[in-house]
Design a protein that fits this description.
The protein has 117 residues and is mainly alpha-helical. 61% of the residues lie in helices and 10% in strands. It contains 5 helices and 2 strands, in the order H-H-H-H-E-E-H. The protein has a two-stranded antiparallel sheet with strand order 1-2. Strand 1 and strand 2 form a beta hairpin. Helix 1 packs antiparallel against helix 2 and helix 3 packs antiparallel against helix 4. The longest helix has 17 residues. The mean pLDDT is 87.
Length: 117
């Protein structure tokens, strides 16, 4: 590149590494990315997922330990669903909502319908 890549360029490249299962390039990209954004939890999480996809559980644990030691934690993603004309928000594996059983049954049904299509 004619200029130094910024966080966005490197983050995009890291995403491509995951899509193409390129662990070696991901490791090299993260070396630079962690210098630019040392506490961005998304970058750690993506690298951890790349290692997991490759079955490299030692490095998965190492990246997660690194996240913990730097105090960076990726917030859980939230989803919304409408049940009986009321919108409810929840995070992955959240069972605290009084209608969580209904919500998960509906999600399972939607997944089955989508797979059939």
């Amino acid at each position: 590149m004619p200029m130094e890549p910024n966080e966005i360029v490197l983050g995009t490249l890291l995403g491509a590494c995951r899509m193409h299962n390129d662990v070696d390039l991901a490791r090299a990209v993260c070396k630079h990315l962690f210098e630019l954004a040392p506490s961005d939890p998304g970058n750690f999480s993506l690298l951890s997922n790349i290692y997991a996809q490759a079955g490299d559980w030692v490095n998965v644990a190492s990246v997660r330990w690194q996240m913990k030691s730097t105090g960076s934690q990726k917030p859980s993603g939230a989803s919304s669903i409408e049940v009986e004309e009321e919108v409810h928000e929840f995070t992955a594996f959240d069972q605290s909502h009084p209608k969580s059983d209904d919500i998960y049954r509906m999600i399972d049904r939607l997944v089955k319908d989508i797979r059939q299509v």
